[in-house]
Specification:
Distance between the termini: 35 Å
Largest sheet: 7 strands, parallel
Radius of gyration: 23 Å
Structural class: alpha/beta
CATH topology of the largest domain: Rossmann fold
Strand order of the largest sheet: 3-2-1-4-5-6-7
Number of helices: 15
Number of domains: 2
Shape: elongated
CATH architecture of the largest domain: 3-Layer(aba) Sandwich
Helix content: 40-55%
Strand content: 15-25%
Order of helices and strands: HEHEHEHHEHEHEHEEHEEHEHEHEHHH
CATH class of the largest domain: Alpha Beta
């Protein structure tokens, strides 16, 4: 199967070559004004966990000798200022690379940008943050230039990248479970296993809060959801839990961060506090600092950054055992793992039982809170993240 992917890529490149040649001619006559150490390729700068991580990577390793290309149209400007603060030059080329009616421009830009990369006097590094365009240009980059990719989870990019694996020098993955999943994929698609040796694990990181309240009122006992909408998040399970616990104990308060307006009718759940989308980190930490427990009911995850943020703020965690969550959340030690991922009735029943138990056992909550604060300080600090990427992109 892998060989068929390679053959298909080679045939496509034969037909694409004239457009590459045109782009190279343009690059030769319109040269870049300066040399760049790193060429970053990201699809978006809109709201999203991946975009937040991309901005952190550019902050840690970028500077005025680096350039960022955005290749897809973003839905909003959530992280554009974060990218600008990195000091990197920003180029949004989505008008040319994300236009299905003028697709030939995408092909020309493959030649244009690789012409820029290959003509650098000092060999740069190319960093691909789950960017389809960056995979498409990888065969046209000189093989002496290091190419690094970041894969956030087992997703569509896990398959898009298959024909281009030979051009990738290092693959960063943020989940140990997803590394194992990709190794199984390599075996299934008959991809040479020596390519799996290029995979490195770098856990995401967060700026830790300056202080954490060791005590917080238990009235109400606050259960928090924080994240984007999506079918895998199974928000309906959280609203069902809130409804059931509201009938049993009105001293348990559910709160939700994120734009869920198209998914949940807030008027139907007057007992849930909806914060909506919040971009201010201080406001987010303020909500975490008052909460007692973070709830994750996802059917699939890598390792959500919201768990890092909640643990750093002393929240207990209750989550489905998916992705890397069981590596960091130990049932009964620093939170609770549901016994099932698929059985939704079981998840609701277990959540209601354990939330009530924790609310009635403040000593246990305080123990878990302290454990999580200490754990986050050791494993999730942004300093570890920054050091790992600086070392990778030297």
């Amino acid at each position: 199967m892998y060989k068929l992917f390679i053959i298909k890529r080679v045939i496509e490149n034969v037909f694409i070559f004239p457009f590459i040649f045109i782009g190279r001619l343009i690059a030769a006559f319109h040269r870049l004004k300066k040399e760049y150490r790193i060429f970053f390729f990201f699809p978006f700068y809109h709201t999203g966990g991946a975009e937040k991580v991309h901005a952190q990577i550019a902050t840690a390793t970028g500077g005025n000798d680096c350039i960022i290309f955005f290749t897809r149209r973003s839905d909003d400007d959530r992280f554009i200022d974060d990218f600008k603060k990195t000091g990197c030059e920003i180029k949004d080329v989505s008008a040319y690379t994300d236009n299905k009616w003028l697709y030939f421009l995408n092909l020309v830009y493959r030649g244009l940008i690789t012409g820029y990369i290959n003509s650098q006097k000092l060999k740069p590094i190319v960093f691909n943050g789950q960017c389809n365009f960056a995979y498409k240009i990888s065969p046209w980059i000189n093989n002496t230039i290091k190419q690094v990719e970041l894969i956030h989870s087992l997703n569509s990019f896990s398959y898009i990248r298959i024909p281009f694996i030979p051009f990738i020098d290092k693959t960063v993955m943020i989940s140990r479970q997803r590394i194992e999943d990709h190794k199984k994929l390599y075996q299934r698609y008959q991809i040479p296993l020596n390519y799996a040796e290029r995979i490195v694990y770098i856990c995401n990181g967060i700026p830790l809060p300056s202080s954490v309240k060791p005590e917080r009122p238990f009235s109400p006992f606050t259960v928090l959801y924080s994240g984007r909408p999506g079918p895998e998040k199974r928000i309906h399970l959280i609203t069902a839990m809130a409804k059931e616990l509201q009938n049993a104990d009105k001293d348990i308060q559910f709160e939700m961060i994120g734009d869920l307006s198209g998914l949940v009718d807030s008027s139907t759940f007057p007992f849930i506090k909806f914060h909506g989308s919040i971009n201010d980190p201080e406001k987010i930490n303020s909500i975490y600092s008052r909460a007692h427990l973070l709830l994750i009911t996802s059917s699939t995850e890598g390792f959500p950054m919201v768990i890092m943020e909640a643990m750093a703020n002393g929240c207990a965690i209750m989550a489905t055992p998916v992705g890397d969550i069981p590596f960091h959340v130990k049932d009964g030690e620093n939170g609770f793992l549901f016994s099932s991922v698929e059985n939704e009735s079981s998840i609701i029943n277990e959540a209601c039982e354990k939330i009530s138990w924790l609310k009635n056992n403040p000593v246990e909550w305080k123990r878990i809170s302290g454990t999580n604060t200490s754990y986050a300080a050791v494993y999730f600090g942004i300093e570890h993240f920054n050091a790992a990427y600086k070392n990778l992109l030297k």
